[in-house]
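INFO batch 0412 | record 1 of 1 | parsing
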Amino acid sequence: MSLKEKLRGQVILIRGSLLILQVVASYLVSPYDTSAKEAYQTSDLPLDGIASLGHGNWDAIYFNYLSRNGYDYERFGAFFPLYPYVLSVLSSVLHVPLQSLMSYDSCIILSSILLNNALFYLNSLLLFKLSTLVGLSELQSYRAALLYSLNPANVFMSVGYSESLFSFFVILGLIVREADSQWYFLCFCFATGVRSNGAALVFFILYDHITCMMNANQVLIVNMICMLVQACACVTPFVWFQNHLFDLYCATDGNVTSEWCDYEMGFSYGYIQSKYWGVGLFKYWQVQQLPNFLLAAPMFLLVGGVLVVWAREHLPWGSGAPNKHFQFTFQFAGYLHLAALTGLALISMHVQVVTRFIVASCPYLFVYCAKLEKPFSRLVLWYFVVYCVVGTVVHSTFYPWT
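INFO prediction complete | emitting tokens
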């Protein structure tokens, strides 16, 4: 049996075990918050209790509502539209044969379970492929994919969150690029439609073309045009969504509207995140948030350690650098992207979400972790497994988690 075949079986086993753990935890542990049950339209149909099985908590409530009703409220502008749209399509298809067994809301939850777990399985295999493309051995690629399948934000890849779909487009885009195809920007474009931080993937496009022109020692018109077209395509879903929200909430024939409607660009994202979700520069740096900083600390330490060690090994001024002729590889862009997103999470986000934020956005983290030697590799594995299991139980019972 090859390592890739072995990986397939192990990922399925992990997914199945965690799904069972979610169900058992939701039955045995009293929920911290019971609002999830109140948020869904239930009935007396035989299979309509699926919302109480730990899959419809926290942000999943918002995605469920958006899939059913669209953007009725301004605060929902923090959630980008591609994931709820996909759920809406899938649930509409599922509801046709299952309408005698469960409500439409339960079909949405079932759609999210099927979609996210299928994508998570596929993402693990894609990460194996990406790892081999960037030069890892088959054993190291197997380790990278297995670490991904046990990642500390595992539960968010199973329930009604957008992380699995976003991660799929990011990993697929990097694979396409590592295969020397310029069509990777389309994957990044779809990623931006799933989550706002997909717009940050434009960095890879700019880096790719600028380094190409540096290596050619000339600015090529074709490269410039290609770079601008791809960069614009990557951020177009973000701009389109902001314009869509402006049409929804600001074009109201003289009625009272939000103050962001008067902004020069007419972009609502920063305003909504600040007003409704408390996101902003150093807004989370409060004494009462210390437990959340401690909860996020392992991910910050892991990323910091990876970046420091990688810099010492590869940068020309690093003590462990094999030579002084640094090459601007695409992996280098990945580590810059990892550093930038981690810094952003530290200073301007709900700090505890850094775990799922980085896991979904930065697959190169697993590529590097797969190369760690003992005892560091064992320490990372224990961190992943503990957060994976505890997070599954805690999130499923509507207790606060990452």
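INFO post-check: The mean pLDDT is 88.
INFO record closed
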